[in-house]
Amino acid sequence: MTDAPVVNLHGYEARAAERLPRMVFDYFAGGAGDEVTLREARHAWDALAVRYRVLRDVAQVSLATTVLGAALDWPVLVAPMAFQALADPEGELATMRAATGTGSGLVLSTLATRPIEAVRAAGTAPLWFQLYVFKDRGLTAAMVARAEAAGATALVLTVDAPLLGRRERDLLNGFHVPPDTPIPNLAPEARRDLAAAPLAASALGEFTARHWDPSLSWRDLAWLQARTRLPILVKGVVRGDDARESLAHGAAGVIVSNHGGRQLDTAVATARALPEVADAMAGAGTLLVDGGVRRGTDVLKALALGAHAVLLGRPVLWGLAVDGAAGAARVLQLLRDETALAFALAGCRTPAEVTADLLA
Ligand SMILES: Cc1cc2nc3c(=O)[nH]c(=O)nc-3n(C[C@H](O)[C@H](O)[C@H](O)COP(=O)(O)O)c2cc1C
Fold first, then answer.
1. What share of residues in the chain are helix, strand, coil (percent, to 5)?
2. What percent of the chain is predicted at pLDDT more than 90?
3. Cα–Cα distance measured from residue 343 to residue 44, given in angstroms and rounded to the nearest whole number
4. Does 356 reside within a domain?
5. Does the pLDDT value for residue 1 go beyond 60?
């Protein structure tokens, strides 16, 4: 281990790699197949060049914004990520504290390791619930009702995972969730399956094949809408036509995402898909993006391409692994400070001033 100061999100990844068991680090870090999409995510943000403005009086910069009614101090929410107790014993409770302390939002995964009610009570950050649709629609509807009752203010319907992507690091490591890991937002039957799945292959692959519904289609969006008063964001869209279809079926918006390169390898990078989706939506509905955001300039670029906010994934897990809630908060604060600096250096005082002409 080194004692060199950690000055950016990449540094947190390196530190986390030293601390986490290999099986867990690989589960967090890895992507599907040859991890082409995973790598491309970074290249695509890097490839965008900023046409910054000068002499705009940036003495006061405010990153504050409101997304789907959620007031955020800056346009970032923590992405839904499963099994956060594998990074820190407090799991999603620590993440909620970090989000609250940094003015960020939090999207809680279906596969969270802490009950949604406890996560809600652990902080005041805006809380959305990410939903996987199970073959058992009764179980699915019960999760939605519970999330609503617990105070989630939006649903994030993940649609890029009808089946689990082939994550070869997990296959090689025989990835499994330790049997004592709680998955309290799931019905007990489904929970048992996750712990009991064979250790030889990826237990998560077995679990999803058994429970997730690959027949999911646009019809099910109507089904879901009939069961909730919460706005629904469709997560995992990379095409304009799918974004339009989402809005036509009543979604409040979409999240341009390829699941952090964990599903279809060689899928288009989100920074490249975002302009097409923004065009297709033409200002209607809420638009978010995730995948490979590691720098304040990436947040700036996402907004310039039409996103209202960004989800941050793996770096939050690195922060949790390094120093629990404090580590996750430091990761978020680092990126927030970088974002404020990027705004100022680009001549932008507010998110509204981050317009498409900022990109070459
Ligand atoms: C360890 C891990 C677990 C994840 N679990 C979920 C999940 O339960 N539901 C979901 O919709 N997306 C899940 N994702 C995808 C993230 O929400 C997000 O799309 C992606 O990680 C963003 O990319 P980034 O990690 O490069 O920031 C997960 C990602 C990781 C790395």
1. 45, 10, 40
2. 89
3. 20
4. no
5. no
Q: Is the CB of 111 under 6 A from ligand 1?
A: yes
Nearest CA to ligand 1 atom 28: 81
The residue whose CB lies within 8 Å of the most ligand 1 atoms, and thus the one to mutate among 157, 175, 259, is 259
Provide the whole-model pTM. 0.97
Tally of structural domains, the chain: 1
**What is the CATH number for 104?**
3.20.20.70
Q: Are 166 and 259 in contact (CB under 8 A)?
A: no
In a domain, 111, yes or no: yes
158 lines ligand 1 (CB under 6 A): yes
Q: Could you tell me if residue 145 is inside a domain? A: yes
pLDDT band per the 50, 70, 90 thresholds, residue 206: confident
Which atom in ligand 1 lies closest to the alpha carbon of residue 28? 1
Report phi then psi at 125, rounded to 5.
Answer: -65, 145
Closest listed residue to residue 41, CA positions, set 346, 289, 288, 237: 289
Beta-strand pair 232-237/309-312? unpaired
As a whole number of angstroms, the distance between CA 199 and CA 173 comes to 9
Report which ligand 1 atom has the smallest distance to the Cα of 257. Answer: 19
Domain of residue 226 covers: 9-349
For the record, the structure tokens of 131 come out as 């939903």
Q: Tens digit of pLDDT for each residue in 222-246?
A: 999 999 999 999 999 999 999 999 9
Question: Within a domain: residue 1?
Answer: no
Cα–Cα distance, 287 to 308 (Å, whole number) = 6
Residue-level pLDDT at 345 = 98
